[in-house]
User: Fold this.
Amino acid sequence: MTSVQIYTDGACRGNPGPGGWGALLRCGSRELELYGGEPDTTNNRMELMAAIQALQALKRPCAAIITTDSTYVMKGITEWLPNWVRKGWRTASNTPVKNADLWQQLVAVQSPHRVEWRWVKGHAGHPGNERADRLANRGIDEILTTRKQGS
Assistant:
């Protein structure tokens, strides 16, 4: 099984507001940078989208280590998810899980892979995380540029 290091980040200017996601994938000496954005979204949705897009980019089952600075993604995928599924996508307080559409996508794209999740403090100088952050912000910049050109 091929090993891949993945660094993900999401960003938002305003929350909600224009947002971007970024992912850096490393496999041996090869790297792939991915990014995108949405004109009206939240930071948490962009954090989830970064992981989804990174996993979707893998062409075959891999052993992936995903490093995120999002405690929301980290706790969601490693702690909260089993109870959400068991309770029909409802929280401990019996309210609908926020971003259930993206959580369900993440579960689906993760399934063919062996994924290990790691958390790192954001904006603390971690090289992979800093690159993912720059990519997420590039996603926002492109959304804002497109919006200006369209007006």
Summary: The longest helix spans residues 127-150.
